Amino acid sequence: MTSTEIRRSTGRRLQSAQWRALRDDHRGRVDDLIGPYLRARKNGAKHPVIDFLFTYYSSRPAHVTRWHPGFGVLLEEADDYLVLRGYQRLDDTVTVDPGFLRSRAGAVGATAALLRATASRPARLGCFGLHEWAMVYRTTEKRHDAPLRLGRAGTDAVVEEMPLRCTHFDAFRFFTPKARPRNEAELTRDRQIRDEQPGCLHTTMDLYRACFTLAPLIDSDLTLACFGSALRARELDMRASPYDLTALGYDPVPVETAAGRAQYVREQSTIAEDGSVLRAALSQRLSDLLALSNRL
Fold first, then answer.
1. What pLDDT, on the 0 to 100 scale, is given for residue 6?
2. Which of 117, 295, 103, 115 is nearest to 217 (CA)?
3. pLDDT higher than 60, residue 267
């Protein structure tokens, strides 16, 4: 793809002052969202809620803090970006390398297919976040350094009294051996594209992973929006878990009660609606990228 074709595909050229202002605004929004957490993390502090978005996804803070313009945007006086993966010089500007898009076309297509399949299904809101309970069922081990609100016997009783309806393989694979047969379906990686549904908190969280693993093709505005949604989903995920996180300022959602389940569904619905909007936006980005990659 020539420089002329790239310009025609986007029409965006940002002067140094323009893109630096966007970059600084992005950094400010990240700081508002997780600044205290990032500073504590640098000093070695652990956080059982937010750490998940970095440790489980093998993400780094730079995946959130670093600003990317997205594919096709031309940056003036941006040589600092040339040391980053996926960028190239184009005439007197710096932009994401079309060759990088070509090399990632398979991943773009696979992600787009999963997002389309997920969006095609109605949201299921009856799981009540019991996956975290299933991960400690009938075991002496815990995944987090926090006490169990109901103790071990009480936690096991909740799993035995309520149906497990997990649809997300990456949660299901951490169920204890005794919990797995209790799920309504045996989930596998191969059938993930058939099982994913938009009501699942983890499916919404995965939108962040989709963005940062395709960086710098995806603009940071969308990546940060997906990260913020993932953070809200993760907070509900852990508030509804068997762990007592009140010392960290998280009020529990007691899904072992009817009132707690109703609260969970209300909050889950809001997150699912937000996730659906972001999923549609990301799907459109990926469709545009695939159309461009077919021209390379």
1. 53
2. 103
3. yes
Give the pLDDT of residue 145: 86
Spatial distance between the Cα atoms of 274 and 260, rounded to a whole number of angstroms: 21
Q: Any long-range contacts for 77-82 (C-beta under 8 Å, 24+ apart)?
A: 77/15, 77/16, 78/16, 78/19
131 dihedral zone (left: phi>0; alpha: psi -120 to 50; beta): alpha
End-to-end CA distance of the chain: 6
- Cis ω on the peptide bond leading into residue 216 (within 30° of 0)? yes
- 10 Å CB burial of residue 138 (0-12, 13-18, 19+) is middle
Is the confidence at residue 2, as pLDDT, over 90? no
In 3D space, the residue among 127, 126, 123, 128 whose CA is nearest the CA of residue 252 turns out to be 128
Q: What does the pLDDT read at residue 8?
A: 52
**Spatial distance between the Cα atoms of 246 and 211, rounded to a whole number of angstroms:** 31
Helix pair 201-213, 105-119: axis angle to 10 deg: 160
Nearest CA among 212, 253, 200 for reference residue 53: 212
* Residue 58 confidence class, pLDDT cut points 50, 70, 90: confident
Mean pLDDT of 194-213: 97
Is the pLDDT at 190 greater than 90? The verdict is: yes
Quote the tokens at residue 147: 């006490």
Residue found by looking up tokens 């919990």 in the block: 179
Tell me how far apart the alpha carbons of residues 63 and 60 are, in angstroms, rounded to a whole number.
5
| Total Cβ atoms within 10 A of residue 200 | 27
Element (H or E) spanning 93, and its range?
A: strand 93-96
Tokens, residue 81 = 């970006």
